[in-house]
Amino acid sequence: MMMTTGHVTRTVRRIRLQRAQQSGVTLIELILALMILFVGMFGALAFMSIALTSSLNANKLLLARNLAEETLNQIVMMREMNAIGGIPDPANRNRNTFIRLSNRAEVNGLFPDTFQPVYISPGSDMIRATGDADEVASGIDPRYQSFTMRVLVRTSDATVPNLGNPTGPPLPICFDREYDNDYDLAAPGNCPPEGTGDTVRRVVVQVRYPYTRTTGSAFRTVQIMTLLTQPPSQIRGI
Prior knowledge:
Elements: H1 5-22, H2 27-80, E1 116-117, H3 133-137, E2 148-155, E3 159-160, E4 171-172, E5 200-213, E6 216-229, H4 232-236
Antiparallel strand pairs: 1-2, 2-5, 3-4, 5-6
């Protein structure tokens, strides 16, 4: 049977129309592709957020550590100069300033036992965290917004039995737990305060800094310590 030209033309058009309808992307395929794209983008953004938070926390930890070491070095330097609380006048150069290396009010101790803001200047006594008038007047240091710090003075004599070696020397109570936020050296049970007659004292510098977490923010504490002795010239009174 012979096909007319018109019939052939209609058949060709129908085939082309069917092919056109079958080509391209369906709506379901488009939605699936967009979902995969969004999941990938959100995953990348979440990873970038975690990396940025970790970097900020590491920077804050470094700042806190440097601040604690700087303050401890200031205290050591002032002890070497016999200038805890101020350099004695020349006529009384051997006056005992070591006694002011304390949290005790009765001996005019230099350090409050509470956390203090971090100010721009250490003040006239050249030591941070003492809260003297010059220090407070200098204003909060913008590098340490939300940071606080304190200096604790503790005994060097308090010890506990060495259970691992009963015949050996006892262990100090005030051992260094630098990153243990659950071990508070301010608690007398963990580390008793110094005595007014101690010639060796344990000095603890604590810096508390904000720490960002996925569920919000909290505070962590860096603490470093050292033992300081009273200068021999003050002990002998020469």
